[in-house]
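Show me a record, fold above all:
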Amino acid sequence: MAQRATVPRGRHAPPLEVRLSVQRRRLFSAAADVFARVGYADASAEAIAREAGMSKATFYEHFANKEECILALFDEGATEVMRTMAVAADAAGTDAAARWQAGTRAFLEMLAEHPEWAQTLLVEILGAGERGAERRDRILAAFAHVLDAENERAARAGLVPRFASPHDPFAVVGAAVELASRQIRLGVPEDIRDLEPLLDRLAGGLLSLPEPVE
């Protein structure tokens, strides 16, 4: 996830687009901290700007309000999670089980290493109302689509059974997200990475079920 950075000033200052990129990363990091600490409802543009060491005017150069900020933060974080999972799966080779386990491990490791971002992605985004829920539904559908495509390739190669219904991949993704969200909210289990064997059993259990009878 984003690390805070300072921007040189004066004649050594980088071009405007670089400065804006650095500012945006700092604002994202600050927003994740604030949303995780006080919750979306009690967060404010002023608090985020102060956390980032910037003026409120700078915040408004990037976002119209805190809703736009959390939506952009969600998009950034979700994209990074998906990219990291894909890299981990590809590094695991062609074995279907190894690819799933590598992707799951990468997902949980990212949440463990960046708890503030994790809380924003899985919990606080729902505070943004209908737009937040729509954004969350869209990214869950995107993850489910990737999982379904992965399963289709492996099934075609004879490595695993095909999911019994188009709802199966969404069930796996939804369960993974809900279990991770529960851990973040309640601390159960104590370490989010302890969910890994459960998620492996969940996916394996669905694949072992017979196709539904019409």
Observations:
- The chain has one domain: 10-208.
- Residues 129-156 form the longest helix (28 residues).
- Residues 2-7 have pLDDT under 50 and may be disordered.
- The radius of gyration is 19 Å.
